[in-house]
Amino acid sequence: MKILQKSFKNNEMCVRYGGDEFLIISQTSSLEASINITNKIQQSVSVQTIGSITYSVSFGLTEMTVNDDWNSLIKRVDSALYSAKEKGRGCLVQN
């Protein structure tokens, strides 16, 4: 969690959503800016090791629309994350 927190600016928030899942809420101006955030986190996490154990992170990414409520947003991003996990370690799937 500390690694994640170091990657964020004031307009971004990270909360634990499940055992190994976190929600990152960001008021970025573009999808490209969000992808840059995920790349920054990926780099920070990938250099962490404990002995021979290495870490990776996969991302599900979506944009909120004017028609979204919290449930539809979570459902869409959860689907993207599930797809990323199926693809393998260190993947990003945007929905």
UniProtKB/TrEMBL annotation:
InterPro entries: Diguanylate_Cyclase, GGDEF_dom, Nucleotide_cyclase, Rev_trsase/Diguanyl_cyclase. It catalyses: 2 GTP = 3',3'-c-di-GMP + 2 diphosphate. Residues 1-95 form the GGDEF domain. PROSITE patterns: GGDEF. It comes from the Bacteria. Gene3D superfamilies: 3.30.70.270. GO terms for molecular function: diguanylate cyclase activity. Its EC number is 2.7.7.65. It holds the Pfam family GGDEF. This is diguanylate cyclase. It comes from Aliivibrio sifiae.
